[in-house]
Amino acid sequence: MSGVWTIAGSLEPVPVLSRLDLVPEPVAAALKLLDGADRVAVAEIDPTLADTAEFCAHYGSPLEASANCVVVAGKRGDVVRYAACMVLATMRADVNGVIRKRLDARKASFAPMDEAVALTGMEYGGITPVGVPADWPILVSPEVAAAPELIVGSGIRGSKILIPGDVLMKLTGAEVLPELAR
């Protein structure tokens, strides 16, 4: 499968369904149900190099092919709504504008690390939209949705998932949000 991925750099991607040991349980459960999971790969990495810039520099993967997942908490009164937001690593999510409005919140911010980890069952720095709670929207920038190949977190810092944008859009709750990223 490594020959299929032009963005892999020095990674050695394998079909994700053959290495579910490289992802946490919520991610494995979601992948088993994902239409198109046969087009998804996973690659083991050094967990100390999981942060996007270091990862890309070390493994030779293009920064513009990496997408980051951020967990945003939107509040209105006592109600808190969460979303997983996907933007290219070269862009920034519009948390206080587009995302706040989509969540119908008065205030929106990145969820605190301990909260994001507890709610997703994933490691901070490896959070992925694959396997987030089913009632969360997965807000995807148009650039991510249209990408033929992406590298995203796997739910742990010790691996990365390689996935086409169209397969990412098959996740429950995924929706393209125009102007999500700048």
Automatic annotation (TrEMBL):
Residues 47-171 form the YbaK/aminoacyl-tRNA synthetase-associated domain. InterPro entries: YbaK/aa-tRNA-synt-asso_dom_sf, YbaK/aa-tRNA-synth-assoc-dom. Pfam families: tRNA_edit. It comes from the Bacteria. This is YbaK/aminoacyl-tRNA synthetase-associated domain-containing protein. It comes from Lentzea cavernae.
